[in-house]
Prior knowledge:
Blueprint: H1 5-17, H2 21-36, H3 45-56, H4 61-72, E1 80-87, E2 93-100, H5 103-116, E3 120-122, E4 131-140, H6 144-153, E5 160-164, E6 167-172, H7 177-186, E7 194-201, H8 209-223, E8 228-233
Antiparallel strand pairs: 1-2, 1-3, 2-8, 4-6, 4-7, 5-6
Helix pairs in contact: 2-3, 2-4
Amino acid sequence: xxxxxxxxxxxxxxxxxxxxxxxxxxxxxxxxxxxxxxxxxxxxxxxxxxxxxxxxxxxxxxxxxxxxxxxxxxxxxxxxxxxxxxxxxxxxxxxxxxxxxxxxxxxxxxxxxxxxxxxxxxxxxxxxxxxxxxxxxxxxxxxxxxxxxxxxxxxxxxxxxxxxxxxxxxxxxxxxxxxxxxxxxxxxxxxxxxxxxxxxxxxxxxxxxxxxxxxxxxxxxxxxxxxxxxxxxxxxxxx
Length: 239
């Protein structure tokens, strides 16, 4: 598949654990979701989705509660959701999603990260057309056939179901995210190895060893930026 979901998540968590960046990013995302609607996941589906994703990264309850309380307190801190698109070595494509309270700063930092690491920024739509927004749900303790049967019984159509490193990964339409989770929960499964909406490339590219090293440096530089929430790409990193 070119995309090892559990390996990627574990790698990011291990990388971010030392600096608590992952907690800061989730805190900001939870705050924004809670402020945009009711600060209650029961009535705020966007907040519910962020909290479910945070759970798969073991974000502490204190971080979650602090962000929600901040939103309840009527903080006037505002963030803009912005997406940047660009290119890395040899036809590689990158999408960068950000939450920022300073658009000029973020644009400058993202552009610099591309420029200093062998990439270049593209215009809106220059990359996103080659990706599909997809719900990704992962569970353990079931086979792919069992999961497919479970979802069919719940009358849920999915794009793909496959086994990966002891887990079963489900690709579904974005609007089926909660339906897939509820089908699992109704079957007694409440823990997920991955639960998020992502941008999946329609095709992967393989880079030379030299270009891959440059590309990984570019991705690390982007992910290190404070305002960057998610980075998506179409490179098979062989993970």
